[in-house]
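Review session, final week

We close the course with one last complete record, chosen because it touches almost every idea we covered. It is PEP phosphonomutase, a protein from Streptomyces agglomeratus with 266 residues. Go through it on your own first, then we will talk.
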Amino acid sequence: MNQHRYDAFRDLHHRPGTPLVLPNAWDHASAAALAAAGFAAIGTTSLGVASAAGKPDATGTAREETLRLGRGLARLPVPVTVDIEGGFGADADSIAALAADLVRAGVAGVNIEDGRPDGTLAPLPLQRELIGAMKEAAPTLFVNARTDTYWLPGHTGETARRLTAYQEAGADGLFVPGLQDEPVIAALTAEYRAPLNILYAPGRLTVARLAELGVARVSTGSLLFRAAVQHAVDLAGAVARGEGDADAGGVVAYAVADGWADAYRM
């Protein structure tokens, strides 16, 4: 990917009042469909990628599926950022190699989290080291540093300390999933020069309100994957029950779905 596309992806995070709405895909088809729908950039969802491979999320076991998908999605005409969970258990040297490999493939960004499957947070010095190693090895890569202080019980008080450390380590963006407190969001967007990423939560803060609070990026996380699977199950159930009015409205035609492969032709 040429430098222009890295710059374009970075610029999408610096449009005051117009946050980047980042849909998260779980395979080539969903990513191509989202790109065709006009989204300016595409992310991946670790839950969706792992679940589609029959593996649990956030355990590092979907490393190969994640990296293979990321390299494939880099052929899309829009920038792609990959959710690498907590770094797949990597140390500084191996995560630096991973970052360099993704940049060579054309991936524009990564999301790295500090939450661990056992409900703890990664040691702060280690997380700083991983972020710094990625930026040193791949300066153009947009590193979105996620802290799970609002997802894991008892850690909200650590949020500012961790965000400060991650920004100092070179993170290009800061992500606090689970945070929906308006005054806290406004304070964070005012405090940090790195753009703030918030996870969209149905029925909670709208994209418009998050924009007013200074949020620069709104991710959908695993929402789209879960919605797609649920809709498929609901539709299959309606067909099995013989419901003649099974809700297939809006389902794309075969030719449209088959055409998503065209997005990957170089």
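Two points worth writing down before the exam:
Residues 50 and 56 are 6 Å apart (CA to CA).
The chain has eleven helices and nine strands.
Good luck, everyone.
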